[in-house]
């Protein structure tokens, strides 16, 4: 099975989860600047900015080729509990005919909000455990 990991991040939170997934999947976590050649399972993650995914994350999802990417395991982060990026990105994947086989979402609160002086990318032990469990579950599908 071919596995790929791509993430969009502004402040490091989503990247930190991608890097944990990489330790389980044994493939590198790469930014969406690296195109996906082929993947049976693509782990794809992004943040939430003003109630939307970043434009680059939506554009990346739109650029995927359903003949090359068989299924997506989606992971998103946000400050608050609403899963708006998950919903928006899932909608694009569905329109493209690529099934989303799982959804991982973490609420980061103010972590990574530079405006309040908080650095991103620091995960709690329980978040590391949760994302690793997610990765294992997705890889078994
Ligand atoms: C400019 C900006 C706008 C944001 N807007 C929202 C928002 O509308 N809703 C929300 O839940 N979180 C919001 N957040 C919080 C981010 O979604 C959260 O920090 C997320 O983990 C960012 O991922 P990243 O560190 O990978 O960029 C915002 C963060 C920034 C920096």
Going by CATH, the homologous superfamily would be Flavodoxin domain
Series of secondary-structure elements, N-terminal to C-terminal:
EHEEHEHEH
What are the segments in which pLDDT stays under 50 over at least 5 consecutive residues? none
CATH uppermost class: Alpha Beta
Number of helices in the DSSP assignment: 4
Protein model, in words:
This protein has 141 residues and is an alpha/beta fold. It has a single domain, classed as Rossmann fold. Helices cover 35% and strands 24% of the residues. It has four helices and five strands. A five-stranded parallel beta sheet has the order 2-1-3-4-5, with helices on both faces. Strand 3, helix 2 (55-63) and strand 4 (69-78) form a beta-alpha-beta unit. The radius of gyration is 14 Å and the shape is globular. The protein binds flavin mononucleotide. This is Flavoprotein. InterPro entries: Flavodoxin_dom, Flavoprotein-like_sf. It comes from Lactiplantibacillus paraplantarum. Residues 5-82 form the Flavodoxin domain.
Supply the key terms:
single chain; 141 residues; alpha/beta; Rossmann fold; five-stranded parallel β-sheet; 4 helices; 5 strands; binds flavin mononucleotide
Give me a quick take on this structure:
With 141 residues, this protein is of the alpha/beta class. It has a single domain (3-139), classed as Rossmann fold (3-Layer(aba) Sandwich), CATH 3.40.50.360.
């Amino acid at each position: 099975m071919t596995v790929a990991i791509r993430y969009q991040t502004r402040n490091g939170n989503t990247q930190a989860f991608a890097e944990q997934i990489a330790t389980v999947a044994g493939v590198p976590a790469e930014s969406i600047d690296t195109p996906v050649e082929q993947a049976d399972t693509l782990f794809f993650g992004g943040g939430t900015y003003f109630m939307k995914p970043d434009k680059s994350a939506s554009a990346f999802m739109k650029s995927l080729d359903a003949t090359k990417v068989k299924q997506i395991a989606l992971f998103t982060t946000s400050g608050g509990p609403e899963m708006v990026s998950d919903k928006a990105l899932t909608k694009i994947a569905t329109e493209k005919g690529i099934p989303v086989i799982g959804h991982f979402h973490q609420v980061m609160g103010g972590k990574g909000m530079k405006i309040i002086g908080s650095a991103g990318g620091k995960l709690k032990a329980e978040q590391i455990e949760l994302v690793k469990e997610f990765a294992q579950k997705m890889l078994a599908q």
